[in-house]
Amino acid sequence: MKIGLFIPCFMNELYPDICMATLKILKDQNLDVDYPMSQTCCGQPMANSGCSKDVETLAKQFVENFKDYDYIVAPSGSCVSMVKEHYAPFFENSSDYNKVKTSIYEICEFLHDILKVEKFDVSFPHKVGIHNSCHGHRMLKLGSASELNIPYQSKLKNLLSLVKDIEIVSLKRDDECCGFGGTFCVTEEDISVAMGKDRIKDHLDSHAKVITGADMSCLMHMDGIINRDNENIKVMHIVEILAGVKYE
């Protein structure tokens, strides 16, 4: 099984340790992992801003980079959703794109659905709240959306439950948006910040010490608010916990 590791551009620049934790998890599963050096942005920021020509260029480059792998894995639900849901207009009956579309997975769904991991040999003795990012939660079905009134399930919670000594806290609103929304946080700053504050308060009220999730963009947004307001809580991408990174 040959894995193509896709790392979102902002994570590559700002969160290299999380990128390395992603690689560690895949390597710990004895997988053959490759990192295409010519990869770049998936095009999501351009799509949010209406720059369709730029998206087309990036989409075609992405498919060319990753078409030959058995699976493509990324630590970002929103970037995976971009590839799966928004590239189609640039490809007409393309076998390469169809293969990429059905082969790309956010790392939690890959671990949960494809590898069916049964344990992680790590301990994380802290109270953790799960932030379910909108793209991963609703588009990739990493969890059940409350508005659908269907039985609750969470792939993130299932994976975290395999970590020793962890305590997953209950939130009042399991799937509320953090307010980031890509360029939304720039064009609608006040609303974005208010939503982020609400999301953080829910975790604080539940006595969580860590907010975790599968999208670093959302966690980055909340981390900025936490640091500005000097709140006593920390954000960690889920791969950090699964890889055994210590809470500091």
From TrEMBL:
Annotated InterPro entries: Cys_rich_dom
GO MF term set: oxidoreductase activity
Domain called Cysteine-rich: residue spans: 4-83, 128-223
Pfam families for the chain: CCG (PF02754)
Annotated GO CC locations: cytosol
Superkingdom, natural source: Bacteria
PANTHER family to which the protein is assigned, alphabetical: LACTATE UTILIZATION PROTEIN A (PTHR30296:SF0), UNCHARACTERIZED PROTEIN YKGE (PTHR30296)
Protein name: L-lactate dehydrogenase complex protein LldE
Originating species: Malaciobacter marinus
Taxonomic lineage from the root: Bacteria, Pseudomonadati, Campylobacterota, Epsilonproteobacteria, Campylobacterales
